[in-house]
């Protein structure tokens, strides 16, 4: 399908006038001029062919960085993400070089095979989490922002009282308050929050993770959960194998001499020992969130518990079943990328609630599935 492009218009600029039709009775229409074949016409044709409309990711207002023609994105700071990659690759490389040959000879060949499978799965989940659009919602256009501001101002009852900047919607019998985002110029859909690091509104915002270099939201949460879960298995596997290697190697001498002979194994042991507890705790915490259909942001704020409210309220997004919540969080359909939607697909439509879930305005997600290209 042909890619849709758009042309950026600066805020406040007047839209280009539409072509006027010839009035009746004003004479015959002008005859088109035949283009000349001189050097000036060739230069104009080449310059017109070289000019193309800007893609949305090229003028993206957030703090993200894009690669491979907008297909990959990353947060503005990538140093912590690089540290994560270095720690995983270094520890696994040392394990394959200094521990796997001994364990494969004395125990079984399945140890390096299992380790390599876990390593490749961890790295693939990490890269998917880091380079995937987490669910960024496009900001309102100047016309949409002006129309919304006019609607908000008309709700004010007096001259000294500011107009309300919140809305209330009913979801599964529970009242949910929508807040207005002054940066994106729109009312945030339920479970949406504005990330101060990336400067974007992210749907089903969980948290901003510097270790993966990206926000964790609706579109990449399943990859993040698979990453921390597989990383906990890989760290525990390497930790157990290194202890087994050192134990078997120290049978012919003292354990201290064995540690002096294998400094690389000691380094792996230290890295795994200090990281395994936090990774296992994080995996258990997010397993509880997945089973409850909660986000880290909602759990910290106590949105559906008595941590914040005087009366305990139930989670309106929960399906009252652990299996149903896991399927909804990890296996649900993904919306199109907000950074790839073209402006011709953006047009207002009435907001509605459908089957207990919020349907965002069609200007966000009405891009056709086949035309959501980069």
Automatic annotation (TrEMBL):
Q: InterPro entries, per this entry?
A: Palmitoyltrfase_DHHC, PFA4/ZDH16/20/ERF2-like
Where is each Palmitoyltransferase DHHC domain found? Answer: 177-301
- GO MF annotations, alphabetized: protein-cysteine S-palmitoyltransferase activity
Respond yes or no to whether keyword Manganese is given for this record. Answer: no
A Gene Ontology biological process noted in the UniProt record is:
protein targeting to membrane
Q: How does it sit in the membrane?
A: Multi-pass membrane protein
- Family to which the UniProt record says this protein belongs: Belongs to the DHHC palmitoyltransferase family.
Give the comment on domains.
The DHHC domain is required for palmitoyltransferase activity.
Q: What is this protein called?
A: Palmitoyltransferase
């Amino acid at each position: 399908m042909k890619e849709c492009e758009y042309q950026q218009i600066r805020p406040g600029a007047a839209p280009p006038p539409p072509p006027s039709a010839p009035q009746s009775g004003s004479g015959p229409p002008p005859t088109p001029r035949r283009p000349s074949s001189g050097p000036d016409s060739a230069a104009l044709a080449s310059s017109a062919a070289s000019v193309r409309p800007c893609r949305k990711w090229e003028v993206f207002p957030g703090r993200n960085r894009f690669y491979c023609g907008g297909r990959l994105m990353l947060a503005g700071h990538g140093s912590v993400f690089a540290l994560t990659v270095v720690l995983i690759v270094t520890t696994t490389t040392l394990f394959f070089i200094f521990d796997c040959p001994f364990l494969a000879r004395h125990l079984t060949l399945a140890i390096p095979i299992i380790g390599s499978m876990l390593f490749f799965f961890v790295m693939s989940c990490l890269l998917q989490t880091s380079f995937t659009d987490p669910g960024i919602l496009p900001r309102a256009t100047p016309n949409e922002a002006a129309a919304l501001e006019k609607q908000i101002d008309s709700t004010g009852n007096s001259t000294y009282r500011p107009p309300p900047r919140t809305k209330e919607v009913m979801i599964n019998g529970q009242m949910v308050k929508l807040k207005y985002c002054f940066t994106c110029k729109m009312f945030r859909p339920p479970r949406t929050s504005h990330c101060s690091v990336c400067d974007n509104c992210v749907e089903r915002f969980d948290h901003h993770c510097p270790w993966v270099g990206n926000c964790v939201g609706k579109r990449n949460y399943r990859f993040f959960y698979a990453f921390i879960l597989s990383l906990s298995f890989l760290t525990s596997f390497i930790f157990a194998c290194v202890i087994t290697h050192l134990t078997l190697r120290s049978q012919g001498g003292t354990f201290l001499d064995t540690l002096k002979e294998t400094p690389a194994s000691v380094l792996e042991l230290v890295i795994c020992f200090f990281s395994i507890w936090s990774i296992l705790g994080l995996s258990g915490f997010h397993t509880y969130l997945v089973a409850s259909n909660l986000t880290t942001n909602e759990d910290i704020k106590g949105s559906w518990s008595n941590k914040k409210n005087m009366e305990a309220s139930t989670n309106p997004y929960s399906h009252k079943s652990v299996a149903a919540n896991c399927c909804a969080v990890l296996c649900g359909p993904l919306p199109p990328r907000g950074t790839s939607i073209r402006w011709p697909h953006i047009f207002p439509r009435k907001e509605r609630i459908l089957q207990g879930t919020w349907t965002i305005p069609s200007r966000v997600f009405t891009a056709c599935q086949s035309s959501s290209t980069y």
